[in-house]
Amino acid sequence: MGTLLGEEYAVEKSRLKVWTRLEGVQRRLIRAIENRDKDLVASLLCSYVSIALDVDVTDAPWQEVAIAYSEIFSINRVDLSLPIFRSNPQVEESVLDYVGREWYEWAHMFAAKYGWTLEYIAQLEVVDALALMQELSVERVNNKEWDWMLSQNSRGYDKATKKEKFIHLPRPDWMKENPRGNQPRTTKIRKDLIPLGNVISWGGDRSNVEH
Fold first, then answer.
1. Which stretch of DSSP H or E encloses residue 19?
2. pTM over 0.70
3. How many whole angstroms separate alpha carbon 68 and alpha carbon 11?
C-alpha cells in the first residue's frame, strides 16, 4: 500500500498482458540507464508505474514514483526455476520490434496453439504462462528433430569407421544434460582465505587444511 498524487494504491501481481508490457518497459529502462539517458529513465519509470496501476503518474512527485516502481517490480519478479532460463539469452533489438510487441508475441503463441481468446490469455497467471511457454518450446524442438531425422542432412560419413553415421540436430543449451550433474563448480581461492582446521568437503570427506 502506498500513496500517489494523494491517492492510496495497492500493489498486486500482474497478469500476463500487463506483465509482458512491464517487461518490455523494463528492458528499455535498463538500456536507458546504461546510456545514462536521464530524461528517458524518468519517462520509462513513469510509464512502468502507470501501466501497473492504470493511472497517469506523469505529474506525481519523483519519490512517490520511485517507491511505487520498487514495490511493483519486487512483487512481479518471477521466482520460478525453469530449464529454459538456464541459457539466459541476450535479447537483441529487431527491425520488427515495436512498443508492446511482447504481449502480441505471447498472445499469438497461445492463441495459435490452444485457441484461447485474447481476453483469456491476458488474464493468465505469469508462472503458468512461463511453464506453458517452455512446453511449447520443447514441442517445437522435438518437431524440428523429427523433421531433421527424416532429411538427408541427418546422415553423414564417418571417416574413422568408414560407415554412415547419424548427425544429431544441435539442441538449445537449456535442453542439454548437465555433464557435471549436481556437483558444484570448482573455484580457486587464495590460500590466505582458506579456513583453518577441519574442512568438510562437498563429498563429506574431512581433511586438515594447514597454511
1. helix 16-34
2. no
3. 8
